[in-house]
Write a structure and sequence with these properties.
Elements (H helix, E strand, L loop, with lengths): L3 H26 L2 H8 L5 H19 L9 H28 L2 H8 L2 H12 L7 H19 L9 H25 L5 H23 L11 H29 L1 H5 L5 H12 L6 H23 L11
Helix pairs in contact: 1-10, 2-10, 3-4, 3-9, 3-10, 4-8, 4-9, 5-7, 5-8, 6-8, 7-13, 8-10, 9-10
Length: 315
């Protein structure tokens, strides 16, 4: 057994890698709503999913052309469940929700995923029951998300169908986070596990595609804007980000990693200011501060309890 200082040093290094992986993921995912909205003018939600994850699946084969051999059928069930939840159901629900309601609504609603993740981790992974600090950090971050998303527009639109689909997507993503935490304990390479999850996600898309009558016009792919957004979603938001997200879950745990979802509206606001030269209002600035305060409080909760990370040293 290595000396305790070496062990602690290694765990801190893993935490740093996990935080970096989570930040890179959210940095890219924070701009995907825009790409999806653009592509919805040309493709149906299920068509976008098929194309982007086929691109992602092919890219992961190119990066690591090795076959994953699962130890038993029970592990395959976890992979299949993760593919169904994190690939097929989550993105289908999110994309359909975007056709009914505003992107800002969906962004806010998806931000409640960390709450469901913490509840599921307590129920299924036997992690500590969420306490007052967790709920305070959740309320702070959600208040910030609301300010960021609706601070520029007083005409908030509520669409029951779209908003309920967004809530369902948040619950499904929480389930996916718990499944990937379990999968990370199998000891396989993250790229291989991500590719296997993509495979099952694509398999489950087939019957949905047949039922919805998918028809992709090859001529639409000739448009440079459409092609760029598809490649961005396929290579960046899918192949790269699912690997980095699963890496973060492996090192940080499902609950801590899910907290980064709060940062999606922050990334969107900052990139809009830098690239589109949009103004960050006082309400948006307050929202950013509240979100960061929520993240800081959740981090302090872990340190004060003397465990390095949710799911790593904390049971």
């Amino acid at each position: 057994m290595p000396p305790r200082p070496r062990r602690v040093q290694n765990m801190k290094a893993d935490m740093a890698r996990g935080h970096l992986a989570a930040f890179v993921t959210i940095l890219i995912w924070g701009t995907t709503f825009i790409s999806t909205k653009v592509l919805l003018r040309v493709f149906a939600p299920i068509e976008i999913l098929l194309i982007r994850f086929l691109i992602g699946y092919a890219a992961l084969w190119c990066v690591r052309p090795h076959r994953l051999k699962a130890a038993d059928k029970k592990q395959e069930k976890y992979f299949a469940s993760a593919g169904l939840c994190g690939i097929t159901l989550y993105y289908l629900l999110e994309n359909i929700a975007l056709t009914y309601t505003l992107a800002s609504n969906v962004g806010v609603i998806i931000s409640v995923a960390p709450f469901f993740t913490a509840i599921f981790a307590w129920l299924f992974l036997r992690e500590r029951r969420p306490g007052l600090p967790f709920f305070l950090s959740f309320l702070l971050a959600m208040a910030g998300v609301l300010l960021l998303s609706f601070g520029k527009d007083t005409n908030v639109q509520i669409n029951p169908t779209g908003d309920l689909l967004g809530v369902a997507a948040a619950v499904i993503w929480a389930a996916y986070s718990i499944l990937t935490k379990k999968i990370s304990s199998f000891g396989y390479h993250t790229i291989l596990t991500t590719r296997r999850i993509f495979f099952y996600g694509l398999v489950f898309m087939v019957p949905i595609s047949l039922a919805m009558g998918v028809h992709i016009d090859p001529a639409s792919l000739a448009d440079s804007g459409v092609l760029f957004n598809l490649l961005f979603l396929g290579l960046g938001a899918s192949a790269l980000c699912f690997v980095t997200w699963n890496t973060a879950v492996k090192h940080l745990g499902s609950v801590k990693t899910s907290m980064y979802i709060y940062m999606v509206p922050v990334i969107t606001a900052v990139t809009s200011a830098l690239i589109l030269h949009e103004t960050i209002t006082a309400a948006a600035a307050c929202g950013i501060v509240l979100i960061l305060a929520g993240l800081f409080l959740s981090e302090k909760r872990v340190q004060n309890r003397g465990c390095l990370i949710h799911g790593t040293g904390c049971k």
